[in-house]
Design brief:
heterodimer; A: about 1050 residues; alpha+beta; 4-stranded antiparallel beta sheet; 31 strands; globular; B: about 350 residues; mainly alpha; about 70% helix; about 0% strand; elongated; fibroblast growth factor binding (chain B)
Chain lengths: ~1050, ~350
């Protein structure tokens, strides 16, 4: 009996009228946990009842505490007939089980009914008393922290990154049970909601157990998904990265911790001391990020795609793509081998060296190989049909514990795919996969499983067990600005065709011509200009088919789909004059008569990589003049577009200065010099560039219709309007002066197609759909200009034949234009400093302090520029930091006593600019606290001081009066607004004022206009946090640059 | 091929002021799009008509969803569905409750009943305001009327607090409620030249001086204290009749006023000739106010009995002011006239109302 859950029902408001005669309601509340139910008294004749109940106490097992939600049902008492349900509230009490998260849930929560939506609010208080000590408690995986954030959460420090954790649970879908025929839609929906709550809880608990087994205390990048497999069941699966996190609370104490100290003092390496312990060179003052590297190491990158079949009896999926086959680049350089050796030990023990992180602690990510992906097509068979001797799946409650030896479970499916990913990574000479994610697309009985990630080489720094010994801490000396671009594979044994050149930053290691990744742009990366969202969109028809034939047809189509998506991406990338993609996410969606492919990524110009060549069009057998003319016209158009794009995204690569190896780094400032020529910089390429002259002028032959189509697609992408930027990653290179104005939004469109469209017609429609959606977003958000749409996350689906659904969730963030220019001038390429994760800077600061305490005379030796520059400011920062801590502590104390809204009032900081969309102020005279939502892991201009727990909510909404609710748009509009409202209310009840890393993972919409019915399922998740504004701190600092660093250092101490 | 579903939901609800106004004005989505295109928003933002249509539909939907909250503005502040910054909330409410002067002139003083609502299409044709907008405005009047009907305490303050309206708008609504409650006739042809603001001013005068709440006679909180005229006062007004029934008093009064005005005005002769008529007019109005029917005709009487004769004699506003001042003050000097308090209370309002109403 490790816990006692206590709940108190305080009051209700805005209840619906349940008794038409009196226009009032006689409401009472049932509070249920597990099998125990309590009831409040009936509060007669009121729409704003004041129950003020006693504390209802549930004495429960820890397992139940994790699995079960607290279920609150509001009912209308009826003397003569059955009581009518008004609605329900499910409360996830998980955040209360962790000592570092929330301590109480208290506030107004919307009462939700799956048929009527929100029907008033209820004020509740929920607490958990834990009887036993922490140790006992930890046995049951309570207390393991979960984060949706795919980076080390701010205000934590990663002690160890243990690696991949996964789990899945399966159950029957209540919607498909026999009883569903006789129960009401409401009962069915509620059964489903409750079941998914239970399954999510169970899944989380099991993952927690695995984390504890690994010795961790947290899961970062927790990604939970549902597969609605129809008759064959309901799968809830999750992946994440197990870590040991430490709260950065006693800052000065840890700073002087001797264990952390003694950075190497290699004289030759200016940035070495800092870099090695994971501290990037991005310290306070305008340190050049582009530091020099010395050790020999080969550059890296590539793009590898693989679609592979599971080796099921059918072998339905083909091997495709440019990924290598068997030969792995194991025999890389000697240094590389050494490096591998070190991390190998850590990684070898792992079944899957996968990491769901997309942003890494400094020094963790060494090299990036390229994208690896695997897909497989599976058939979902009937579960309850043992007569079919050949059943491929069995329904069990828990695949892992009971069916480990069952070869054809879903677990096994995923295992195959993961194995494949692992081998692809190996082929790229990489021992790890980062930015890893898994997804499915289901249509009837066919299911496509996909997994993708980025092959990479990681430092062992966060992976070794036991105390880190210094010798092993610096595997290598890589300048952080370009090191990750250097190829990890052996250049003589490239797994796929790629052109290698010497790195344009350090000139020492080989880099590929193009780099595709699924991770976020590393904060320390050297980037020229700004980035932009790049999408490849594709639609392919397929014949209607059944069963295995269908699966076969799909798997035959997949490789072509992927190939074309890749070609489109490549073309569009070059059209923008860029050379790398980050955050690449390829989504393949299957329908009965078509396949949809949508690839989204953020294009950037990595300074380390060669300038991309243009696009050259070649016609078939040049015969007549008009045709030639046509071609040259197109060519001109393309060239013009490239020039225009380069201007728009400020891509002016620095002139490459010829230099002897080992010569001092050119001043980074030079980079801001204008380099207008849009032609590739091959004429400036230094002698050590082994690539040949006018390399890679990308040739597009338009002798077939496909290519014409490609070119069309290229040129029809309309440019983003002035003042707008867009990306699908966390941060936008080149923009840093975010104001506090943020606007998270979700937009959904469903498009009905005509029958009998050709592939080209479909493509055009699909592409236009996405383009128009983007245009609409720009228009909607025009008042925020200049602004950037960050984390633009598109999801496509084919809800039924001839329907395409596109859903977008993103955040628009305003920035300050003037400052951007100013800063841009001052510190050439330090464009990312502001956006660097606070966590990184935290670490960095730490180490700087170490250096001072452990090596008493760090300045005595002639260190590199950067170090000299950074030390004085480190001291400054230290003192101001402590002041900030005090300030913060003050604010927080006040905040915790009062309500959230009053806490906001407690720090009424001047905002950068006044904007109409600003939502961060508390509403005067209103009881509703403002809750910000963002898909990003941070809030601009603010410091996250506490993580309150994960928000993971699943809602179903159904209507049988679709027209009356404003048609499908009205219905969905209301529902999404309700979901937002419920997320905000739950966050506010936890004491939070924001949700970060918010995502809408599922939005399944079904309609039947003839019957006037519609149903929608939405699953959202995110991390509830408390943030405080930091603007007051910014005001105090004099120098803009140091201000940035200072403020982002402050605040975590609590 | 068609867009079957198209929604945009922001964490902070996005509302475009311009579109809101178009919605309030009762434009259809298509008309609103036309207006927006003409407004040039497209060129400004590189948008297409398609984008504009999508945005307009979306906004309209948002407004429709908000409308139910706007009916109880206090709810807007503590509802959870839409996250709207306070300044936006205030804007939404203020504009929702704003009304067209030309519309309000049509229904001012009418019973806010279903019958009146049925006639709104006539009003719509007459004023050129869309029927939808007319209905909204009418429903607003009715809603405010119903709510304050049941509330105690000062009218303006109640409206302001209950509907979160800015001061001026709250006063206007108080006037509308006051007129509707007392059913003042405002539609007659002779009154057409008066604007709503003229009436609102007069309503303010009446509320502040002639109602129960005006003189603090009540123990502060009483139902309808601002809406109903002070019966006792109306009763007392009958006593003023002595000013016209007593021949001596009337002559005395006339000579006092004429002496005071001689040489100070160009219309002295006309004034002198008309004095008795004018005085009879004003005092008769006072004496009849005890009848509800005559209360309704208060404004028409003022115009017929006083304003029109003066206007035909080409009095200026200055003449009017001078005359009314001396007319009021002189009565106090009359030996046998005892009803000074009632006279002051009556003439104070009459004077300011007439001065306000005396224009073309």
């Amino acid at each position: 009996m490790p816990g006692r859950l206590k709940a108190k029902i305080v009051a209700g408001r805005h209840l619906p009228v349940m008794d038409r005669a009196s226009d009032l309601t006689d409401a009472f509340v049932e509070v249920k946990f597990g099998n125990t139910t309590f009831k409040t008294d009936v509060y007669p004749k009121s729409l704003n009842p004041q129950w003020n109940s006693e504390w209802f106490k549930f004495e429960v097992d820890d397992e139940d505490l994790q699995d079960e939600p607290l279920q609150i049902t509001v009912l209308d008492h009826d003397t003569y007939s059955a009581n009518d349900a008004i609605g329900k509230v499910y409360i996830d009490i998980d955040p209360l089980l962790c000592s570092e998260a929330a301590t109480v849930i208290s506030g107004w929560l919307p009462i939700y009914d799956t048929i009527h939506g929100i029907r008033g609010e209820i004020n509740v208080l929920v607490k958990v008393d834990l009887f036993n000590d922490l140790n006992r408690f930890r046995q049951s995986s309570c207390g393991v922290k979960f984060f949706c954030t795919t980076s080390i959460p701010r205000c934590y420090r990663a002690i160890m990154v243990h690696g991949f954790v996964e789990e899945l649970v399966v159950n029957e879908d209540p919607e498909y049970q026999w009883i569903d025929r006789i129960r009401t839609p409401r009962a069915s929906n509620e059964a489903r909601q409750r079941l998914i709550f239970l399954m999510s809880g169970e899944l989380q608990r099991k993952i927690g157990l695995k984390v504890l087994e690994m010795g961790g205390n947290a899961v970062v990048g927790y990604l939970q998904c549902f597969d609605l497999e129809g008759e064959s069941g309901l799968v809830v699966r999750a992946i994440g990265t197990a870590c040991t996190l430490e709260k950065i609370s006693t800052f000065p104490a840890t700073a002087t911790h001797p264990n952390n100290s003694s950075p190497s003092k290699d004289m030759k390496e200016p940035g070495f001391g800092e870099e090695a312990p994971g501290v990037p060179l991005s310290s306070g003052p305008p340190t050049p990020l582009r530091a020099q590297t010395f050790s020999s190491f080969s550059p890296s990158k590539s793009y590898s795609r693989q679609s592979s079949s599971s080796d099921t009896e059918l072998s339905l999926t083909p091997k495709t793509g440019m990924g290598s086959g068997g030969s792995a680049g194991k025999e890389a350089g000697p240094l590389k081998a050494l490096l591998k050796q070190q991390t190998q030990s850590a990684l070898e023990q792992r079944e899957y060296p996968f990491f769901t992180l997309t942003i890494f602690p400094p020094g963790f990510l060494l090299h990036v190989g390229g994208v690896v992906s695997a897909r497989s097509v599976k058939l979902l068979d009937r579960i309850h049909n043992p007569a079919l001797g050949n059943t491929r799946s069995y329904k069990l409650l828990d695949w892992n514990s009971f069916t480990a030896d069952e070869p054809e479970t879903r677990d096994a499916w995923w295992e195959e795919i993961r194995q494949e990913i692992k081998s692809h990574a190996k082929a790229l000479g990489c021992h790890a996969v980062v930015g890893y994610s898994e997804s499915t697309s289901i249509c009837e009985e066919v299911c496509i499983l996909s997994a993708s990630g980025t092959a990479a080489i990681l430092s062992s720094r966060f992976m070794q067990d036991g105390p880190l010994d210094t010798e092993h801490r610096f595997e290598e000396v890589v300048s952080p600005g370009c090191g990750f671009c250097h190829i990890p594979y052996d250049e003589l044994n490239i797994p796929f065709p790629a052109q290698l050149t010497y790195c344009y930053c350090c000139r020492r290691y080989k880099v590929p011509d193009v780099l595709f990744t699924t991770i976020d742009l590393p904060t320390e990366a050297n980037v020229t200009g700004k980035g932009c969202l790049i999408q490849a969109r594709l639609c392919r028809t397929k014949k209607k088919a059944q069963g295995e034939g269908n699966a076969m047809a799909i798997s035959n189509l997949l490789p072509f789909l992927e190939y074309e998506l890749h070609t489109q991406l490549m073309n569009k990338l070059k059209l923008r004059g860029m050379n790398a993609l980050f955050g690449l996410r390829i989504q393949i969606s299957v329908g009965e008569t078509m396949l949809l492919g949508l690839a989204s990524a953020t294009g950037v110009y990595l300074t380390a990589l060669p300038s991309p060549g243009g696009i050259q069009i070649a016609g078939k057998t040049p015969s007549d003049i008009t045709y030639e003319q046509h071609i040259s016209n197109m060519q001109k158009k393309i060239n013009d577009t490239i020039t225009k794009n380069k201007e728009q995204y400020e891509i002016n690569p620095p002139e490459v200065v010829e230099e002897i190896i080992g010569s001092p780094i050119p001043e980074p400032r030079q980079r801001s010099r204008l380099f207008r020529s849009h032609s590739e910089s091959s004429d400036e390429v230094s002698e050590i560039d082994l690539s040949h002259g006018k390399k890679d002028a990308f040739v597009l032959e338009i002798d077939d219709t496909d290519a014409v189509e490609d070119i069309h697609a290229l040129l029809t992408d309309s440019p983003t309007p002035a003042g707008f930027y867009s990306c699908n990653t966390e941060i936008m290179p080149g923009i840093q002066n975010w104001t506090s104005a943020i606007q998270m939004f979700t937009s959904v469109r469903v498009f009905r197609l005509n029958a009998n469209l050709t592939n080209q017609g479909l493509n055009k429609i699909f592409s236009d759909l996405c383009e128009n959606l983007l245009k609409s977003l720009y228009f909607k958000l025009r008042s925020m200009v200049p602004c950037c749409l960050c984390h633009l996350n598109f999801t496509v689906a084919i809800p039924e034949d001839e329907l395409i659904q596109v859903a977008v969730t993103a955040v628009a963030m305003s920035f300050d234009k003037e400052q951007t220019l100013e800063n841009g001038k001052r510190s050439g390429e330090k464009t990312l400093i502001k956006a660097i994760t606070e966590n990184d800077e935290q670490l960095q600061f730490n180490l700087e302090l170490n250096a001072e305490s452990s090596s008493p005379n760090p300045l005595g030796s002639p260190k590199g520029l950067s170090e000299v520059g950074s030390h004085p400011s480190a001291r400054d920062r230290c003192s101001s930091w402590i002041e900030q801590l005090k300030l913060k502590a003050h604010t927080i104390r006040r905040g915790s006593v009062k309500t959230t809204s009053s806490m906001e009032k407690a720090s009424p900081l001047p905002e950068g600019r006044s904007r109409s969309l600003r939502s961060n102020r508390s509403y005067s005279g209103s009881s509703v606290a403002v809750v910000k939502m963002t898909p990003l892991s941070f809030i601009p201009g603010a410091k996250i001081i506490k993580y309150l727990g994960i928000i993971n909510m699943f809602f179903i909404r159904e209507t049988s009066s679709l027209r009356e609710e404003g048609g499908v748009s009205g219905f969905l509009h209301t529902f999404i607004a309700e979901v937002f409202a419920m997320v905000r209310a739950h966050v506010a009840a936890l004491g939070g004022n924001a949700v970060v890393s918010y995502s809408m993972k599922e939005c399944v919409f079904m309609e039947n206009p003839n019957k006037n019915q519609a149903q929608c399922l939405i699953n959202v998740s995110g991390d509830a946090v408390i943030f405080v504004r930091e603007s007051e701190l910014e005001l105090t600092s004099v120098q803009p640059q140091s201000a940035t660093t200072q403020t982002s250092n402050g605040g975590e101490g609590t | 091929m068609s867009v079957e579903l198209d929604v945009f939901v922001g964490n902070t609800t996005i509302m475009d002021k311009e579109v809101y106004q178009l919605w309030l004005n009762g434009y259809t989505v298509n008309d609103a799009v036309k207006v927006r295109i003409e407004g040039g928003v497209m060129e400004e933002c590189e948008a297409s008509a398609e984008v504009l249509l999508s945005d307009t539909m979306d906004q309209y939907r948002t407004f429709q969803m908000c409308e139910r909250l706007l009916h109880h503005p206090a709810k807007l502040a503590n509802q959870l569905l839409f996250q709207i910054p306070p300044d936006r909330q205030a804007m939404l409410i203020e504009r929702y409750y704003a009304f067209d002067d030309s519309f309000v002139r049509e229904v001012l003083g009418k019973k806010l009943s279903k019958g009146t609502k049925k006639d709104l299409d006539d009003v719509s044709t007459k004023t050129g305001i869309t029927l939808k907008s007319c209905r909204r405005q009418f429903d607003n009047f009715k809603r405010v009327f119903k709510v304050v009907e049941e509330l105690k305490g000062p009218l303006v303050e109640n409206i302001r607090q209950h509907f979160l309206l800015p001061d001026q708008l709250a006063r206007d609504y108080a006037a509308i409620v006051f007129f509707a409650n007392n059913r003042f006739e405002t539609g007659k042809k002779k009154l057409q030249y008066l604007t709503f603001q003229d009436f609102a001013f007069c309503a303010g005068q009446l509320i502040n001086n002639w109602t129960l709440g005006a003189v603090g006679k009540t123990n502060n909180m009483m139902e309808d204290m601002d809406v109903d005229l002070d019966k006792e006062f109306l009763q007392d007004l009958k006593d003023l009749k002595i000013l016209i029934t007593d021949k001596d008093l009337l002559d005395q009064h006339k000579s006092l006023v004429c002496n005071a005005l001689r040489g100070k005005t160009n219309v002295f002769n006309e004034m002198e000739a008309n004095f008795k008529n004018l005085s009879r007019g004003l005092v008769n109005i006072a004496a009849k106010l005890i009848n509800a029917k005559d209360v309704r005709d208060f404004f028409i009487d003022l115009v017929e009995k006083f304003i029109e004769p003066c206007r035909s004699d080409k009095w200026t506003s200055i003449d009017m002011n001078l005359y009314l001042t001396h007319y009021t003050n002189s009565a106090h000097i009359l030996d046998t006239f005892k009803h000074h308090a009632v006279w002051t209370r009556y003439m104070g309002v009459i004077k300011s109302c007439i001065l306000r109403m005396y224009h073309d």
